[in-house]
Amino acid sequence: METPGRVLKLDPIRSIKKAPVEEYFESGHRTCQGCLSSLPMRLMAKAAGPRTIVLGSTGCMYVANTTYMTTPWVVPWMHTQLGAAGSAAVGTAAGLKALMRKGKIKDEPINVIAFCGDGGGADMGLSAISAALTDIEYNLLIFLYDNESYANTDIQTSGQTPWGAVTTFSPPGKKHRIMQRRWKKNVPGMLAAGHPDTRYIASGTPAMPVDMMDKVRAALRAGGPTYIHVLDPCPKGWHYDPEHSVELGKLALETGIYPLYEIKDGVLEFTGITKQIATGRRRRKPVREYLEKQGRFAHFKNQDYAYFQKKVDEMWEQWIIPCVVAFSYGGPINITGSEPRVRNKNVERVNASWTGEPGHAHEQYEGVSDAPSEPWRDDNRLDEYPNALPSTGH
Amino acid sequence: MTVARPRGRQIEKLTTGTQAVAQAVKLADVDVTAAYPIRPYDGVMQAVAKLIADGELECEYIVAEGEHSQFEICKHASAVGSRVFVGSSGVGWMYAMESLAVTPSLRLPVVAMIGNRALDDPGAFGVEHNDAMVVRDLGWLLFWVEDAQECFDATLMAYRVGEDRRVSFPVGICVDGAFITHSQTLIEIPDQETVNEFLPPYDLGDRLLHPDNPITIAPQANEDWVMEIRKQTDEAARRVKGVIREAHDDFRRLFGRGGDNPFFEEYMTEDAEYVLLGMGSLGLPAKVMVRRLRGRGEKVGFIRLKWFRPFPDEELAESLGRFRAVGVIDRDYSYGSPQQGGVLFTDLRAALYDAERRPRLVDFIGGLGGRELTPEMMDEMAEITRRAARGEDVPTVSWIGVRE
Ligand SMILES: Cc1ncc(C[n+]2csc(CCOP(=O)(O)OP(=O)(O)O)c2C)c(N)n1
Ligand code: SF4
Fold first, then answer.
1. Residue A198 phi/psi, 5° resolution?
2. Smallest Cα–Cα separation from A203: which of A275, A270, A108?
3. Which of B62, B84, B210 lies closest to A135 in CB terms?
């Protein structure tokens, strides 16, 4: 496929030593201690370099970062509306392209990156991101930093909030222990499946900085509209001690709750820890290890852990591409009469492992192997849920 | 009225209002446009799309997935220095409201055509002015046109005034749905050189978003700075009238059109005892009415307001003092407002409060939802205004042409 214009030559970043020392997201911001949403800003800017325009949608990374009269941004930066990351990127890229084509400004590759939170990106901004991913004429990257809540407005439930998590919009109560009953939307998978002309879509986490920076560069090199989704532990919203941020990011990978992958020109490849799990070189840890470390799940009972584990197991064992394409294959495909073709060899290996190793982490729990299908229907009164509510802050 | 001779060569063309805007968009060499369908504005995007398809306009053309995106795309394209064109109507314009609110505070001179349309429900796509008026307090400059020629002229004017560095505000060209958007008239189109002389290239200067100029636009400001920023914006808003006067003089010099007064047109007012005042397409039936009543010896005139924002308060106060009564025609409404009248009426009443000589002011709500404003309705409004001028007791606000 043709690239829509020249892109910057950005070498892959394969080790932390190869990362540039220059910073383009500097001091001057005021996010919480241990905020893993501001770290990807810094890594993303570092990977993209100085010939970049960054657009930021409303959220913590706007309000807590870009305080009037100070700015952490060394590259040009502009605010955009909560649901407008996709349109901001398209408008900026289209403006640059028109001016270059007409000779009104110098013709040169410029990175256009629009970031948004999970609230702005996975909820109200989804339609604009989807539209942007079909505008193949423009070079742009949409970068969704997913802290699993509307963090800036005091931790409210978003389309990315995990099942059962306590937020200020889903407090556990006397009647309903579980108020957040929706399973997290699979945004990168949905976008990848629905936008076949998009040349690069990936998931990452700042807990794996090299992997994340490398993906930013890969996206910018690919040209056209691209998308990266990063999972960012948020001490305020997830209610844990800030020193555990990176550890939690890793646990999300190790438990298989959140997968790392990239899809380049329609070919999927798992990366990092997820690749090890997918290829059978690592066993998934039980999700309980991840959930127990966070106050937002402090009200969980055994059946809740079990339900959560069951859902994660489904993602690994029943999805046609584990953790990416959210349906199972009923085959054989009658139209062609052939077996489904999975282009990635790693995935083939995963397919082979569906029936046996690895997985089935929930079996390691005593007494919870029969996970109830709807644990919130359980009329057990919630007596105590110490510190289950996140504190309020900025 | 002195008539100047146009510079350069003008061609005549049978054109609808929306096509006329598209012709101006082409001559303005717009760089980025974004489209989304809603009647009656969408004709302009169909015309712009065809110009692009035919290679007559080189412009990035984006079919957005909603008005919010449409206006955000153009706002951001404007920030990197491209001249943009966008538009909408009625509820579509409302859907973009968030973007409409931030564009003037970012001081980005986005130019939009508003094909005025009633706000659903009840579903109606005829003209009503409330859609455009919801941005009147936000910094949008609003020009109400009378016909296809003025659609063309106002579009060039919008770029010239909005992009002036002393101004830098978005401009809405308000075009009465159906009556102007969809009806054809002969218009004069100037040549490219003369347009270039009138309209300098868009230049954001040190506010340009570009890696060579790494600024931070719209950082988050709270109570410690917002007052100051609003005050600066207000200072710019106060400069707009002067810039409009300059642009108007240049326009007349180069194109030989536009009338004496940049803000409103006066029709047969010299010796008038009372006048009607309104905006948009109602100029035509109003002028017919004035001519007819003049034939019967009535001293009546008509004033058509062009710029609604900035509101020409001093200019109107000075002019209207000569009359004994003014009948305002509102193609809009403001429920529960002072006197329960229309928006134009309310603003005009405020503008006249400090005037030395104040005419009696009455209001007419008419033509809502696209209902035609006929010469007969004009007669009725003129009659009430005449009685007001004679000191008779008439209602301050009358709804005209409503089935009882
Ligand atoms: C249209 C609109 N609705 C609501 C808000 C209020 N608001 C400001 S920040 C924010 C939270 C955004 O959450 P997210 O996108 O997840 O980013 P985060 O705060 O988590 O970084 C909300 C809802 C807004 N700014 N705009
Ligand atoms: S609330 Fe969460 S995302 Fe927001 S600044 Fe604090 S740690 Fe970061």
1. -75, 125
2. A270
3. B62
Q: Does A63 touch chain B (CB under 8 A)?
A: yes
Element (H, E) at A131: helix A126-134
Cβ neighbours of B107 in A, within 8 Å: none
A246 in reach of chain B (CB within 8 A): no
From the CA of A187, the nearest ligand is 1
Q: Identify whether the C-beta of residue A89 lies closer than 8 Å to the C-beta of residue A228.
A: no
Given the structure tokens 């340009």, which residue do they identify? B208
Find the ligand nearest to A234 CA. Answer: 2
Which residues on chain B place their C-beta less than 8 Å from a C-beta of chain A?
29, 31-32, 34, 58-60, 62, 64-66, 68-70, 72-82, 84, 98-99, 102, 201, 209-211, 213-222, 224-225
Helix axes B43-53, B17-27, angle to 10 degrees: 40
Query: B-chain residues within 8 Å CB-CB of A74?
Result: 214
Atom of ligand 2 nearest to the CA of A242: 7
Q: Whats the size of chain B, residue-wise? A: 404
Instruction: Count residue pairs from A and B with Cβ separation < 8 A.
Output: 153
pLDDT tens string A208-246: 999 999 999 999 999 999 999 999 999 999 999 999 999
In this structure, are residues B78 and B108 in contact, taking their beta carbons and an 8 Å threshold? yes
Give the angle A345-A135-A231 at the CA atoms, nearest 5°: 55
Distance B273 CA to ligand 1 centre (A): 57
* Contact by Cβ (8 Å): B365, B336: no
Q: Interface pTM (ipTM) of the complex?
A: 0.95
By the 8 A CB rule, do A78 and A52 touch? no
Chain B: nearest CA to A72, how far in angstroms? 9
Q: Is A115 in the pocket of ligand 1 (CB under 6 A)?
A: no
Question: Checking DSSP bridges between strand B325-330 and strand B184-189, what pairing results, if any?
Answer: unpaired
Q: What DSSP element (H or E) covers B247?
A: helix B226-255
CB of A32 shorter than 6 A to ligand 1: no
Helix axes B97-105, B226-255, angle to 10 degrees: 90
Dump pLDDT digits (tens) for B319-374: 999 999 999 999 999 999 999 999 999 999 999 999 999 999 999 999 999 999 99
Q: Tell me how far apart the alpha carbons of residues B222 and A143 are, in angstroms, rounded to a whole number.
A: 26
Determine if residue A41 is left, alpha or beta; phi over 0 gives left, psi from -120 to 50 gives alpha, anything else beta. Answer: alpha
Decide: A365 and A308 in contact? Cβ < 8 Å: no
Minimal CA–CA distance to A283: which of A184, A383, A356, A201? Answer: A356
Is A135 near chain B, with CB under 8 Å? yes
Rg (CA), chain B: 21
Q: pLDDT tens, A176-220?
A: 999 999 999 999 999 999 999 999 999 999 999 999 999 999 999
Sign of CA dihedral A28, A29, A35, A37: negative
Do the Cβ atoms of B264 and B278 come closer than 8 Å? no
Flag whether residue A14 sits within 8 Å of chain B, measured between CB atoms: no
Helices (H), B256-352: 283-295, 313-320, 343-352
Residue (of A78, A89, A76, A77) closest to B102 by Cα position: A78
What is d(CA A114, CA B81) in angstroms, rounded to the nearest whole number? 18
Of B85, B31, B204, nearest to A99 by C-alpha is B31
Record the pTM.
0.93
Strand, coil or helix: B390: coil
Q: What Rg, from alpha-carbon coordinates, does chain A have?
A: 21
Chain A residues 38-57 within an 8 A CB cutoff of chain B = 50-53, 55
How close, in Å, is residue A135 to chain B by CA atoms?
A: 8
Q: Does A103 touch chain B (CB under 8 A)?
A: no
CA A138 to chain centre: 23
| Facing A95 at nearest CB: one of B80, B211, B216 | B80
The answer to whether residues A117 and A61 touch, using CB atoms and an 8 Å cutoff, is: yes
